[in-house]
């Protein structure tokens, strides 16, 4: 039998066996600069698998740890357990058909994932989105950022040993789900953006709910500050844990709050403004310490800045259409579909063929998502689906830091560090 046809050995897939052997070998070789000797006469060192099914790894993340007592000597990350091949799936879907898949990557901030993909396609096809649709997208993105940070806060504090914060933050997230439900018709995986605009308009009731929510959240954040900023246990669990320098953060391609916690004020909304962010007055929070506590402060301040942006959007949002009026580049309205033959034909053609950017063009567009810089690279062959599509996901880049900061930490600090980096494995594995 040819060796390539032998896929199992004693009931175990060969790939998994070889993967395991390679992983353990890499752990043995990592940082080995001293001669091998019997320096552990009491046999205190052990190999521990944390994950992939672990309640504090924020998804199916496997962390392989070599321990000396409770101190981590070496570590290796093993990702890919949620890999679904969405980049290849995109190449066999129309641009609009791929939209629901973006919800399933960073599923804690699906609205921002929708917008990032739409902006890339619109840049590729040279589509100018109406102003009202851009403001609605901004409102959705900032509320999604707040929703993601609320879950991070609740989970991160729970990782530090407290339960109540998790309940309080989820209470606020439930209000956001009600808003998205009324806006998009879905609570979680919204798929509200469309190529050329948004699916439906923001009603006065939705806008009022948004205004009431951010007003109430201001006082809630103040209360959380009072609770956590005077809590010695919380400080001791996070201060000085997993520090990283600005230079090392740049080398590793860190983005989002973990990067800004090192003093680098990089935010795509400021450096390469998209939608109407150039018209918004907001600041980019930074810290200098680079540790887990600094990451906490940055995200808390980011929620306050998102509130500022939402309030400005609610004041400035104009009246007008919510999608472009071009039958070859955007879906028609439901009224057109239901009451005119031309609208029905255009809807059918968009569903069957979709938007067709010029052949041979390519583009990259990124946004500042809740986890960091999220970008899409697309190549077009002139058809209604991408010839090539690649995704720059912030969670995968940010996870690279974990291997660099875990060595020398206590095993109990592992879950706190993962919570501070705040990865989403659907976003990392794709």
Describe this entry's structure for a reader.
It is globular and about 75 Å long. The two termini are 35 Å apart. The chain has 17 helices and ten strands. The model is unreliable at 1-11 and 31-37 (pLDDT under 50). It is mainly α. It has one domain: Cytochrome-c3 Hydrogenase, chain B, CATH 1.10.645.10. Strands 3-4-5 form a three-stranded antiparallel beta sheet, with helices on both faces. A three-stranded antiparallel beta sheet has the order 8-9-10. Helices cover 48% and strands 11% of the residues. It has helices at 14-29, 86-90, 99-103, 110-125, 131-159, 164-184, 204-228, 232-238, 246-251, 257-260, 268-271, 292-316, 334-339, 341-352, 394-406, 413-421, 425-429; strands at residues 8-9, 12-13, 45-50, 62-68, 71-78, 193-194, 197-198, 362-368, 373-379, 388-392.
Q: Number of helical segments?
A: 17
Give me the CATH architecture, please.
Answer: Orthogonal Bundle
Write down the CATH topology. Cytochrome-c3 Hydrogenase, chain B
Order of helices and strands: EEHEEEHHHHHEEHHHHHHHHEEEHHH
Spell out the blueprint of helices and strands:
Elements: E1 8-9, E2 12-13, H1 14-29, E3 45-50, E4 62-68, E5 71-78, H2 86-90, H3 99-103, H4 110-125, H5 131-159, H6 164-184, E6 193-194, E7 197-198, H7 204-228, H8 232-238, H9 246-251, H10 257-260, H11 268-271, H12 292-316, H13 334-339, H14 341-352, E8 362-368, E9 373-379, E10 388-392, H15 394-406, H16 413-421, H17 425-429
Antiparallel strand pairs: 1-2, 3-4, 4-5, 6-7, 8-9, 9-10
Helix pairs in contact: 4-5, 5-6, 5-12, 5-16, 6-7, 7-12, 12-16, 15-16
């Amino acid at each position: 039998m040819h060796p390539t046809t032998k896929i199992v050995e004693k009931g175990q897939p060969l790939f998994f066996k070889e993967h395991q052997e390679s992983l353990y070998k890499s752990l043995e070789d990592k940082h080995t600069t001293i001669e091998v000797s019997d320096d552990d006469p009491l046999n205190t060192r052990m190999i521990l698998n944390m994950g992939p099914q672990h309640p504090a790894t924020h998804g199916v993340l496997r962390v392989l740890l070599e321990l000396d007592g409770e101190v981590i000597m070496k570590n290796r990350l093993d990702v890919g357990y949620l890999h679904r091949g969405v980049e290849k799936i995109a190449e066999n879907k129309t641009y609009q058909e791929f939209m629901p898949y973006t919800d399933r990557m960073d599923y804690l901030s699906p609205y921002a994932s929708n917008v990032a993909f739409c902006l890339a396609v619109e840049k590729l096809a040279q589509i100018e989105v109406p102003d009202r649709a851009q403001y609605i997208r901004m409102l959705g993105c900032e509320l999604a950022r707040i929703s993601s940070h609320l879950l991070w806060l609740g989970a991160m504090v729970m990782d530090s040993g407290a339960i109540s914060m998790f309940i309080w933050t989820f209470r606020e997230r439930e209000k956001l789900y009600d808003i998205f439900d009324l806006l998009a018709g879905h609570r979680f995986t919204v798929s509200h953006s469309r190529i050329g605009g948004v699916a439906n308009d923001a009603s006065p009731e939705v806008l009022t709910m948004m205004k009431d929510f951010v007003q109430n959240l201001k006082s809630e954040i103040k209360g959380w500050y009072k609770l956590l900023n005077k809590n010695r246990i919380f400080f001791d669990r996070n201060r000085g844990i997993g520090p990283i320098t600005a230079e090392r953060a740049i080398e590793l391609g860190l983005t989002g709050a973990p990067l800004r916690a090192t003093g680098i004020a990089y935010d795509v909304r400021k450096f390469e403004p998209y939608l109407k962010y150039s018209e918004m007055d907001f600041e980019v929070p930074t810290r200098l310490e680079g540790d887990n506590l600094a990451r906490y402060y940055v995200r808390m301040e980011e929620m306050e800045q998102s509130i500022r942006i939402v309030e400005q959007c609610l004041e400035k949002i104009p009246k007008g259409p919510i999608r472009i009026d071009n039958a070859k580049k955007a879906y028609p309205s439901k009224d057109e579909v239901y009451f005119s033959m031309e609208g029905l034909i255009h809807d059918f053609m968009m569903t069957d063929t979709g938007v067709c950017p010029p052949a041979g063009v390519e583009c990259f567009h990124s946004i500042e998502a809740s986890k960091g810089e999220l970008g899409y690279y697309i190549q077009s062959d002139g058809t209604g689906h991408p010839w090539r599509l690649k995704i720059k996901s912030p969670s995968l880049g940010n996870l690279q830091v974990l291997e660099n900061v875990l060595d020398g930490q206590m095993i109990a600090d592992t879950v706190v560090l993962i919570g501070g980096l705040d990865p989403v494995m659907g976003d990392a594995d794709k």
